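Researcher: Here's my situation. A collaborator sent me these components and asked whether they could plausibly form a single complex. I don't have experimental data yet, so a predicted model of the whole assembly would be a useful starting point for our discussion.
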Amino acid sequence: MEMEELVKKFQNKDVKAFEKLYAMYSDSMHGVIYNIVRDHNVAEEVMQDVFVKVWQKSESYSKQKGRFFTWILNIARNAAIDKTRSKSFKKVKQNLNADFFVDIIQTSESLDDKTNAIGIKAFVDKLDEKCKIVIDLLYFKGYTQSEASETLNIPIGTIKTRNRNCIKILRGLVLN
Amino acid sequence: MDINAYITSGILELYVAGVLSEKENEEVYELMQKHPEVLQEVLEIEAAVVKLTAATSQRTNTHILDIVKQELKLNENTKTKVVSINKPKYNWITYTGWAASILLAVGLFWTLNQNKKLENDMRITKTHQSLLETQIETSKNSLTEANTLISVLRDDSIYKIPLAGQGSFTDTYAKVYWDKATERIFLDAEGLPEPPKGKVYQVWSLTLNPLTPTSLGTIDDFATDSNKIFEIQNTNTSEAFGITLEPKGGSATPTMEQLYTLGVVTS
């Protein structure tokens, strides 16, 4: 498998492999981080910290434990959340991370940006409010199933099936 | 295991979200290896989530990679880029610094050399000066001597006694100028040949009746004296003066065979 090969090279400190992985996931990580911190300068700072850490801790990833994407997603979410808990951040930015990712996409003005190019905006517009929340909590905020269940006040099993349905719609829209 | 039921359960979506337990994760991984449809499902879920999250990024993030690589000291290109901006500055300052040092060193060396040269010149000039001073002193002395001679020659009270060549030395001559008042004679010995090595001329004061010679001394500096005029003390009541050639150091009595010149005082 190509992806496994790439990750292996990266773990052997291959800079080219690191660059490829960055190209694949950096926008995704930035989206997640920005959605949490809601400040471009802070997001950039966290991005740097995350990818420095990704390189330094590369050997701690193992494919048996999960997807490579999931591994860096965890690092990015934790770094961003840590940032929002830091004193300096609290002073400036309070109560901002109550927003969902959707408003970022919906308020995007530019017509030729990547949001429009992949039809995400259209999807988000049509997306059920319940989907928006569950996707935001599970993918963007890193909530566990039970945390999401508590927050939304719905049973754990319902989180699982609702999420499945929401992602199914997303796949239909973005992957054709 | 019913793979379709497993897929539709929603566990794979949670797998990508990263909320499963370690055990569940390993289980999904094993099923992905065994069942391509599980793997395919996971890949599609992941692709959709990557696209959605990427859409939330309203920025281009490529520049961050450069910063990260710089921080990790990874990229040679980034490194050289950074260095290439700084290098000319660094080189400019360095080269200027070196050039200044070299100029200063050359300047110092030149100044030192100049100084040495000047010191040398000064030493030569000083030597030259002392040489000139000596010459002036010598000239002064000669002038004084000459003036004394002139005064002697003009003085009426001075006796002039020519000494004629004797025996085999008839072609030699001398003159004595006797200043009785100051009890000294000036012997003009220019008519005498240079004495041979180991010999000196001895000057004698003579009384005639009976013939008694009294030594007035030897002329030791005959060869080196330029005007051949010698001032000699004479307290005797001389009646004649004679010059003989004697061994170095002089003799108690004159060697008559070596009598060169002789002259009688006529009053």
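Model: Some features of this prediction you could bring to your collaborator: Chain A touches chain B through 61 residues (CB under 8 Å). The longest helix of chain A spans residues 15-37.
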